[in-house]
């Protein structure tokens, strides 16, 4: 599902993270561990196609990201990669349900209200679907962000510290939901975190920064 | 979810600034609509009333006043001219038609005009079924608006009152009989009461007889038919009329006839075309200024949209970068920003056109009480159609710079590195 060869990630010419090799099969999950400031986010964004790699190759679902340019890359990202940002970036002009549908609108795929509502149901926030996101708690917003990342049935779901702001119970619930959603569409989870609590769920680990 | 619904969501989200922009936009558009409608209707009214009248002859004084009083029935007459001199002029070889007018009384503010049947015929007026023109004194024909506002019909009687405005002494002992009502003509005729010149003379000659004991109590507004205190001893020599509407039978007449009249007689000749051009030159400057002001308002509203979107771009950087990261092409977001601006422009222009027409309707009902100028807000002009593409262009222009900025959003820096 995800292949990485001699990847150097960073911006401009500045290399921040290097990953010599990584191979992730369908439904396999990978954890990226590292202290804050170690370049986890830079690596995640490079994997998601938001940053061009300084060197090396990334292949997602058989497609080399380096071969895609401009709107072709946008379209590929929209359909194959789901992003959960550390800052959740809710669109405050829209309701919770519209925030989820926004990902389908942006990706240019058919909008499926039923699917969005059933996703919200599985995440336990269907009753909030017509509320504005700012009226929700941090944990509830986190779930909206998860629904938004999963709505297009992406091949990989990339999450930046999705659990670190949550208490133990919420952390366990959110992790469970993420794994459940990933399993349902055979997607791979790639989670960057310094949160040691969730290690057990992952097939592979990369440690960035310091000890390389 | 589509660009339109998303635009509405954003416009609702910042309702106050949206309302402000739409209002400014609508105000500019409404102002232009009012100018267009009022101008068109005034021009049309002037053109209808002037139709075929080449020269107006009346007492010496202001030529503009003579035209306004005799053609448009707006101002007071400049005075009277002797009937004999008028009759003499009517026989001039270059005069095709000369219509005499005698003013002096009114009925509920509508002027009673003593004339001949040539006057309504000049405006191609038609009598309603069952009516006829006057045959003897104290018979009158009502203009369409006079009839509808007074409720009088053929066979009814009414009394005129002295002077050209409401409030004069009522000639109760000399009632008129309505013998006909005119169809609407879209000219000043609609607001006049027509009668034979004999009626006007009749009233005032007998009136004067009665008032002979108190000379001077009769008013200075005896504009027509003021005979001497000796009564109707030799009427034709003493009689006067207010003015004469002349059409030439040759364009050459314009070169000589007015000069001849002004030089050799005690009367004044004024050319309506010339006086109207003069009036338009005064009024044109005013309308032009208002027009500039209206366009300035629209430009201001366009600038409001621009500032609104530009500011919103700052707040919305995250939203736009987020949509980009979810796969939205820059073109899609460009379209989104454009849609938002065009919605504002479209709502603004629609609201403005509606308000403009309501305003003109308001002006019309206010003018209606003045009984001089007829206007309506239910008129739609071709020129108004132009407001829509022009407004949309203003909207598109305002959104252009903010919309182009979406192409330069750095997703990574905006969403992560902040």
Question: Can you give a write-up of this model?
Answer:
The complex is a heterodimer of chains A (212) and B (418). Chain A has 212 residues and is of the alpha/beta class. Chain A has helices at 40-47, 70-80, 96-107, 113-122, 138-150, 168-184; strands at 2-11, 14-24, 30-33, 55-60, 63-64, 81-84, 156-160, 188-193, 204-207. In chain A, helix 5 packs parallel to helix 6. Chain B folds into two domains: 3-46 and 284-415, no CATH class; 55-270, no CATH class. Chain B is built from 14 helices and twelve strands. In chain B, the strands form two sheets. In chain B, strands 1, 3, 4, 5, 6, 7, 8, 9, 11 and 12 form a ten-stranded mixed sheet that branches. A two-stranded antiparallel ribbon of chain B has the order 2-10. In chain B, helix 2 crosses helix 11 (330-368) and helix 10 (272-325) runs antiparallel to helix 11 (330-368). Chain A binds chain B through residues 11, 41, 45, 48, 50-51, 71, 74-79, 83, 85-87, 89, 91-94, 98, 101-108, 111, 148, 160, and chain B through 1-2, 6, 9-10, 12-13, 318-319, 322-332, 411-412, 415-416, 418.
List the helices and strands and how they pair.
The complex is a heterodimer of chains A (212) and B (418).
Chain A: E1 2-11, E2 14-24, E3 30-33, H1 40-47, E4 55-60, E5 63-64, H2 70-80, E6 81-84, H3 96-107, H4 113-122, H5 138-150, E7 156-160, H6 168-184, E8 188-193, E9 204-207
Parallel strand pairs in A: 3-8, 3-9, 6-7, 7-8
Antiparallel strand pairs in A: 1-2, 1-4, 4-5
Helix pairs in contact in A: 2-3, 3-5, 5-6
Chain B: H1 3-13, H2 15-50, E1 55-59, H3 63-70, E2 81-82, H4 83-90, E3 95-107, E4 110-115, H5 118-122, E5 139-142, H6 144-150, E6 157-158, E7 161-162, E8 176-181, E9 192-196, H7 197-211, H8 235-238, E10 240-241, E11 243-248, H9 253-264, E12 267-270, H10 272-325, H11 330-368, H12 382-385, H13 387-404, H14 411-415
Parallel strand pairs in B: 4-9, 5-8
Antiparallel strand pairs in B: 1-11, 1-12, 2-10, 3-4, 3-7, 3-11, 5-9, 6-8
Helix pairs in contact in B: 1-11, 2-10, 2-11, 10-11, 10-13, 11-13
């Amino acid at each position: 599902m995800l292949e990485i060869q001699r990847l150097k990630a960073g911006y401009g010419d500045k290399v921040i993270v290097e990953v010599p090799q990584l191979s992730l099969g369908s439904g396999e999950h990978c954890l990226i561990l590292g202290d804050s400031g170690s370049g986890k986010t830079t690596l995640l964004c490079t994997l998601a196609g938001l940053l061009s790699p300084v060197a090396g190759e990334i292949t997602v679902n058989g497609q080399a990201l380096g071969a895609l340019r401009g709107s072709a890359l946008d379209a590929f990202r929209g359909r194959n990669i789901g992003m959960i940002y550390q800052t959740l970036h809710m669109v405050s002009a829209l309701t919770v349900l519209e925030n989820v549908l926004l990902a389908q609108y942006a990706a240019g795929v058919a909008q499926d209200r039923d699917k969005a509502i059933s996703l919200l149901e599985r995440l336990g926030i269907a009753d909030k679907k017509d509320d504005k996101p700012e009226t929700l708690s941090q944990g509830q917003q986190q779930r909206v962000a998860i629904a938004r990342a999963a709505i297009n049935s992406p091949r990989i779901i990339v999450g930046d510290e999705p659990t670190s702001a949550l208490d133990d119970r919420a952390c366990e619930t959110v992790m469970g939901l993420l794994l459940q959603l990933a399993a349902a569409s055979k997607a791979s989870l790639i989670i960057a975190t310094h949160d040691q609590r969730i290690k057990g769920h992952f097939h592979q680990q990369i440690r960035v920064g310091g000890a390389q | 979810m589509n660009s339109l619904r998303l635009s509405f969501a954003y416009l609702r989200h910042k309702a106050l600034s949206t309302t402000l922009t739409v209002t400014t936009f609508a105000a500019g558009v409404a102002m232009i609509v009012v100018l267009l409608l009022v101008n068109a209707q005034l021009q049309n009214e002037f053109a209808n009333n002037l139709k075929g009248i080449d020269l107006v002859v009346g007492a010496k004084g202001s030529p503009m006043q003579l035209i306004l009083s005799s053609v448009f029935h707006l101002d007071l007459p400049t005075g009277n001219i002797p009937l004999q001199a008028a009759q003499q002029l009517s026989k001039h070889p270059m005069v095709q038609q000369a219509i005499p007018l005698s003013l002096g009384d009114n009925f509920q503010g509508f002027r009673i005009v003593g004339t001949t049947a040539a006057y309504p015929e000049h405006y191609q007026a038609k009598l309603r079924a069952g009516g006829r023109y006057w045959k003897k004194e104290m018979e009158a024909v009502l203009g369409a608006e006079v009839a509808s506002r007074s409720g009088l019909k053929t066979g009814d009687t009414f009394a005129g009152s002295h002077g050209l405005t409401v409030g004069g002494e009522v000639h109760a002992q000399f009632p008129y009989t309505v013998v006909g009502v005119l169809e609407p003509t879209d000219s000043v005729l609609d607001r006049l009461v027509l009668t034979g010149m004999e009626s006007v003379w009749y009233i005032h000659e007998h009136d004067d007889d009665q008032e002979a004991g108190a000379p001077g109590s009769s008013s200075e507004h005896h504009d027509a038919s003021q005979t001497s205190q000796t009564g109707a001893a030799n009427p034709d020599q003493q009689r006067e009329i207010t003015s004469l509407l002349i059409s030439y039978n040759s364009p050459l007449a314009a070169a000589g006839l007015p000069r001849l009249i002004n030089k050799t007689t005690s009367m004044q000749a004024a050319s309506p075309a010339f006086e109207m051009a003069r009036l338009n030159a005064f009024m044109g400057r005013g309308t032009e200024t208002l027009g500039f002001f209206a366009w300035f308002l629209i430009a201001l509203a366009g600038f409001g949209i621009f500032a609104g979107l530009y500011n919103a771009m700052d707040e919305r950087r995250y939203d736009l970068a987020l949509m980009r990261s979810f796969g939205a092409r820059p073109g899609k977001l460009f379209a989104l920003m454009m849609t938002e601006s065009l919605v504002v422009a479209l709502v603004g222009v629609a609201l403005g056109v509606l308000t403009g027409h309501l305003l003109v309707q308001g002006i019309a009902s206010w003018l209606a009480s003045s009984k001089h100028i007829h206007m309506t807000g239910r008129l739609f002009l071709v020129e108004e159609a132009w407001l829509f593409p022009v407004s949309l262009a203003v909207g598109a222009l305002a959104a252009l710079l903010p919309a182009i900025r979406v192409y330069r959003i750095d997703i990574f820096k905006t969403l992560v590195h902040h």
